[in-house]
């Protein structure tokens, strides 16, 4: 074995040997041994093999009263058989979330016979970016001393994988051109792939072309690994057609020719359609065949169903069946007012 103070160990061994020889030595001519036991012990004679280990050979001389002597030789071997040990405890098993994995601890090692300790640290992770799930981190300290005594100390961390999701909301017109989804990523998001999680569309790597797709919401997702966790960017894009300028000429205006407010859901209202997205304001005036104005609205919303001013048709709430005339002014259109006849009936 190897002690912290090998010289004290060797000195005590030598003293014990001398005491034993003095106790057991005998002399054929003297029933009572009264001689002397000496040794050439000197700790400086230790032959080192590694570290503080080594061997020391000592010659013992036994002399009787007449100075007759006998010599004995003994060898002390000081062997280092113990590997270095840590000065602090190493937690063998830990639990952690991916964003809070503890730092590698600073571990010092000591050895009872060697002045230097060689430490090799290794860390491995079972995290698989292609198939992410909970994983393990294994930390290993392999230590050896000058005498090649070796030991391995291990710390295993069971890591719970978390996915940190950032959701972005955007609107885009179907006629605005292609959209590069990579513009929504942070600089450290790499090695991921865009996928469509909602909506019937196609992607060319990171490029989305909204032309010719149905209007509505499309959701795109991009997941990448970041320091043992997952970062997901989710982009919700509402595709609309507000930027599309539709033809808004006189020929696009569709005006009711007949109004039959009889409750059958057919031609119930006087309607002006075809220009709903043109930004026009409809100014409507309706007259009977004698030129009396029976209805007027400067912001008409397709909601006239034959009602009239009582002064224009007596006491009735509805105009009588017959031919009527309208003047329509489409404000902001640049078009001339439109005037024409139409029929109001009960069938």
UniProtKB/TrEMBL annotation:
Superkingdom of this protein's organism: Bacteria
Family matches, as InterPro entries: Ig-like_fold (IPR013783), T9SS_type_B (IPR026341)
Pfam families, alphabetically?
CHU_C
Q: Which NCBIfam families match?
A: Bac_Flav_CTERM
Name of this protein:
PKD domain containing protein
Q: From which source organism is this entry?
A: Algibacter lectus
Q: What lineage does the source organism belong to?
A: Bacteria, Pseudomonadati, Bacteroidota, Flavobacteriia, Flavobacteriales
């Amino acid at each position: 074995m190897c002690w912290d103070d090998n010289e004290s160990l060797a000195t005590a061994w030598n003293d014990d040997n001398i005491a034993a020889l003095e106790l057991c030595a005998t002399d054929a001519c003297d029933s009572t041994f009264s001689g002397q036991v000496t040794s050439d012990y000197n700790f400086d004679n230790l032959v080192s093999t590694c570290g503080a280990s080594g061997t020391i050979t000592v010659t013992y001389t036994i002399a009787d009263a007449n100075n007759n002597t006998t010599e004995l030789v003994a060898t002390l071997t000081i062997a280092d058989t113990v590997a270095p040990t840590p000065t602090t405890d190493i937690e063998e098993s830990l639990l952690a979330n991916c964003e809070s994995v503890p730092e590698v601890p600073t571990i010092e090692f000591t050895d009872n016979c060697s002045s230097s300790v060689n430490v090799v640290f290794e860390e491995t992770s079972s995290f698989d970016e292609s198939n992410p799930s909970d994983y393990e981190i294994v930390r290993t300290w392999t230590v050896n001393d000058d005498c090649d005594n070796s030991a391995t100390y291990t710390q295993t961390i069971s890591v719970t994988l978390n996915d940190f999701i950032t959701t972005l909301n955007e609107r885009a017109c179907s006629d605005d051109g292609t959209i590069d989804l990579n513009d929504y990523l942070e600089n450290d998001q790499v090695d991921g792939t865009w996928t469509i999680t909602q909506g019937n569309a196609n992607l060319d790597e990171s490029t989305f072309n909204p032309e010719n797709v149905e209007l509505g919401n499309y959701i795109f997702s991009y997941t990448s690994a970041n320091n043992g966790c997952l970062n997901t960017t989710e982009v919700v894009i509402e595709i609309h057609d507000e930027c599309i300028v539709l033809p808004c000429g006189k020929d696009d205006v569709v005006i009711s020719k007949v109004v039959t407010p009889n409750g059958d859901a057919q031609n119930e209202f006087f309607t002006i359609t075809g220009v709903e997205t043109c930004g026009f304001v409809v100014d409507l005036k309706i007259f009977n065949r004698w030129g009396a104005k029976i209805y007027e609205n400067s912001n008409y919303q397709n909601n006239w169903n034959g009602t009239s001013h009582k002064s224009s048709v007596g006491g009735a709430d509805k105009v009588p069946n017959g031919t009527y005339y309208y003047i329509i002014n489409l404000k902001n259109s640049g078009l001339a007012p439109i005037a024409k006849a139409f029929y109001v009936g009960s069938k």
